[in-house]
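Final report, section 2: Outcomes. Of the targets proposed, Ocs element-binding factor 1 is the one most frequently requested by collaborating groups, and we therefore present its record in full.
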Amino acid sequence: MRKQQHLDELTLQVAQLQEENKKVSQMIDGASDLYINFASENNVLGAKVAESTDRLQSLNSVLQIASKVSGFAFDISDTPNNLLEPYQLPCPIQPIPASDDMFQYLRVFILWLFVFFRVLFI
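The predicted structure is given below as tokens.
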């Protein structure tokens, strides 16, 4: 009778852990989807910044030509204003690509942490 009760408790615990594993997996999938969305939006914004910078440079060159032709002096700055970009690094940041199995390791690690702390505080 005790063995059957112990087996039932372990079976119940396995079912609970599988359910918690599914929830953690869904949370990780949701976070991964959000990251992918933010990364794509960041790429779009980066392209818009590059396009706007090119347009600004071409407009500055038009203003320089207009100032030479008309004789009026325009205040044209060739260098970007560092006050507008105080945290701009001198070199571009290269993203670190992640492999698909890295997320699997992350899932296993988070699940292990969850189980470890759950056992620790029970």
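The longest helix spans residues 2-70.
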